[in-house]
Task: structure prediction
Amino acid sequence: MAAAVVLSTRGIVRPFIVGLTLKRRLNSAIIINSRKNKDKNKISQKTKICYCLTGERVLVKSLSVKIWRGADEGHFDRFSVPVRENQTVLDLVTEIQRQQDPTLSYRFACRVGVCGSCAMMVNGRARWTCRTHVRSLGVGTDEGIGEGDSDEITLEPLRNMPRIKDLTTDMSRFIDQWGEAGAGFTSARDRNDDPARVDPNSKKRKAANAAIECINCGVCHASCDVVAWNDEYLGPAALNRAWSLVNDERHEARDETLEAALGPGGCSNCHSHGNCMTACPIGLSPTRSIAGLKKMSLMAMIGIK
Result:
């Protein structure tokens, strides 16, 4: 089994091990160099790891990736993908779409854990796939790269949203719920005014800051048990945003936002299971934000602001 450096049709130089399991993936590539090096290309039968020309460790074994195809009515297709070190789930999906099935539909943008666009269900749990390493799932792994007996990963679109095609969902309703929760920022200032002076150490500012980093990825929404059965519930993301706004002293429509968050479909529907808090990729706690709204609701009932 010889090592080769391969130049793909996209102009990206990547190391590959030319073998029976990978030959079909090299049909569209140009092999520009191939030579054997006894030190770097030796294969350990114990670890099943091959050392390429670059020194990168590449696992010889493959894993099975089961992907949902279609919309609400559909089926699962299985794909075989070689396991590589430092491989993310998004890498798997990208390789399948580029090299095996170009009709596969999915979302991604930054690829570095900033935008949240690549969120999907991975083995039944909502995750950012660009931040989910294959080794962390305990599949298709060997010495030092993870543990586990199963060599299969199951990928589905985010739950609690209509499916468009394959791994993509319609997030329109999810976005609309932010507006229904009064989560639009309203300011009396314009660009000609001086910046507002906000004490970063004030109690309200700290409460707002604790919830403000949400990027609307939908992971908490897909993980919420109440959203799954209650179509009227605004969901943890929208209510977390409402909590941030009612604590922002620059927000002019605080009473309107609080009224929307306390109304039908609002915070009283939350059962405090904490799934949203557990699932949030950046460690926010919509559960805590919703609890704060419930406390405000009680205080409003007894006339305390």
The chain has a mean pLDDT of 80. The first strand starts at residue 3 and ends at 7. The chain has nine helices and eleven strands. The two ends are 74 Å apart (CA to CA).
